[in-house]
Amino acid sequence: MVKVDIKYTKLFINNEWVDSVSKKTFPTINPQDETVIVQVAEGDKADIDLAVAAAKKAFYRYSEWRKLDASQRGHLLYKLADLLDRDADYLGELETLDCGKPVKQAIAEVHWSANVVRYFAGKADKILGNTIPADGEVLSFTLKEPVGVCGGILPWNYPIPMFVYKVAPALAAGCTVVIKPAEQTPLTALAVTALIKEVGIPAGVVNVVPGYGPTAGAALSYHPDVDKIAFTGSTEVGKLILTAAPAVNLKRITLELGGKSPLVVFNDADIDEAAELAHKAAFSNGGQCCVAGTRTYVQSGIYDKFVAKAAEIAKRRTVGNPFTDVQQGPQVDSDMFAKVMGYIDAGKKGGARLVAGGDRQGNKGYYIQPTVFADVQDNMKIAREEIFGPVQSILKFDTFEEVVDRANDSNYGLGAGVITNDINIALAFVRHVRAGSVWVNVYEHVSPQLPFGGFKESGLGREMGEDGILQYVENKTVAVSLPKKPLQK
Ligand code: NAI
Ligand code: MG
User: Fold this and answer.
1) 153 CB contacts (<8 Å, ≥6 apart)?
2) Is the CB of residue 34 less than 8 Å from the CB of residue 363?
3) CA-CA distance, 489 to 486, in Å (whole number)?
4) Given this model, what pLDDT does residue 1 score?
5) Which residues of the chain have pLDDT under 50?
6) Which residues form the pocket of ligand 1, taking CB atoms under 6 Å from any ligand atom?
7) Ligand nearest to the CA of 155
8) In this predicted model, what pLDDT tens digit does every residue of 205-224 receive, in sequence order?
9) Residue 18: what pLDDT?
10) From residue 298, how far is each of 265, 278, 348 by CA, in Å?
């Protein structure tokens, strides 16, 4: 077992590492062998109260943070990005230990996160209002002002990217934050927080409180002094937060939730290339990806050949110790392992044709074989519900109009992809599919400049890009009376 040094296991409030008020701790588990890695301080309502108070104080009008120029906020974020790159190998290894993703991928995600931070660093002094020719004798303009104290509730599938998706735009806009990392993966949020301290971001601007959802997470979302919550996770919890949290103080809510994204392959596609792309779409991060392309629709002319190829690629996929050069490590925890195995069982019992995988791998750790079902029907559980594991469903279709209706027949609308060389088919698909991101002959192409988020029950609001920063500002309209008479002075 690879030894990774763990330096931070406490809460971070007002620039200090502290125990929780209750002194309670919770274990974080190694998904490779189901052992306890370390105990982490367990935050609850009393700790959230302290963290929110620190964030509120740091947001007060004469605070060190509020007095900084916007460009200085940007410079602090540039420094943070450099430290992420500096420590990428360590942070990646720590992530692999806690989360189980292959170490090469984990390190790449740290560099990716550094670039996200750089994008928002550059935005800090470019958040512009408008001058507006309003009716009446007034000079009018808008100011884009920070929304205030922001809560971020994180998932476990991309812990470092999700941390910076919440923190970087908030800081660029001049907000202060309280972050509640996922209970499965608290360690890297704390390690990145140590870099925030090293950069010299003022006390109270970033606070991090590990703990569970119904306790720490709920306390943060209901807190009357929190102005905004940004949440990534399940649609179930997202709905709960959206309906319950604003009832307290009308706080702003952005949600990045689940998906059941379609990837549609037309007859003219190169079968080998299309099958590789569809494989990556379904299996990247072990299928633990909100935009995973888990419904692979294949046109009837190439269906049989495609299924054979997809099965072959899945059987070749390397699964094992994530500290070695594999494509897939274990699933994140016992709950997700059981949930995914339950869906595989439902696929078998529901009449889908199993062409690859279908079982756990080994008998220790949360490893699951890359699994492919063919002849999946739209009404099957595995075609309707988010599985969040290494399971691809292949469905056959005949015509364009039919497949667009079927692709859209979902309560989700996060991502969608199409593989074809016919520009009319590609653009008609782009036009008619109901999803927040649509990819043509590529899948899951994300970039800090591109807004990301969902239609329908996949979420509310967008992260990244210009839209991403606008979720962290309020629009203040100013009208200044102009002199009505000639000035004497
Ligand atoms: P979850 O939605 O329960 O957890 C996400 C975050 O919300 C965690 O930090 C958790 O502690 C917190 N949370 C849970 N209950 C809360 C509450 N009542 N109030 C405030 N915060 C709360 O997701 P979970 O249980 O980890 O996974 C369940 C399913 O969610 C997965 O099977 C998958 O389908 C989906 N999911 C989607 C993600 C995405 O990227 N959109 C990421 C993780 C999970
Ligand atoms: Mg949950």
Assistant:
1) 179, 180, 213, 217, 220, 221, 229, 230, 231, 232, 233, 241
2) no
3) 9
4) 65
5) none
6) 153-157, 180, 182-183, 212-214, 217-218, 221, 232-234, 237, 240-241, 256-258, 290, 339, 386, 388
7) 1
8) 999 999 999 999 999 999 99
9) 98
10) 5, 10, 20
**459 CA closest ligand 1 atom index:** 41
CATH number 3.40.190.10 is the correct assignment for the domain at 262-440 = no
Please, where in the chain does CATH 3.40.605.10 lie?
11-257+458-476
Radius of gyration of the chain (CA): 24
Alpha helices in 69-102 (DSSP H): 70-86, 88-99
Residue 155 Cα to ligand 1 midpoint, Å, equals 6
**Mean pLDDT, the chain, as a whole number?**
97
The backbone region for 280, taken as left when phi is positive above 0, alpha when psi lies in -120 to 50, beta otherwise, is alpha
Task: State the fold for domain 11-257+458-476.
Answer: Aldehyde Dehydrogenase; Chain A, domain 1 (3.40.605)
What are the backbone dihedrals phi and psi of residue 152, each rounded to the nearest 5 degrees, phi first?
-120, 125
CA distance 444 to 284: 10
Catalytic position from the list 99, 150, 175, 290: 290
**Nearest C-alpha to atom 32 of ligand 1 is from which residue?**
388
Burial of 210 (0-12, 13-18, 19+ CB in 10 A): buried
Cβ-count burial of 45 within 10 angstroms (0-12 exposed, 13-18 middle, 19+ buried)?
Answer: middle
- Asked if 290 is an active-site residue, the reply is yes
**pLDDT at position 49:** 98
Element counts in the chain: helices (H) and strands (E): 17, 22
In the chain, CATH 3.40.309.10 covers 262-440
Instruction: Tell me the CA–centroid distance for residue 330 and ligand 2, in Å.
Output: 19
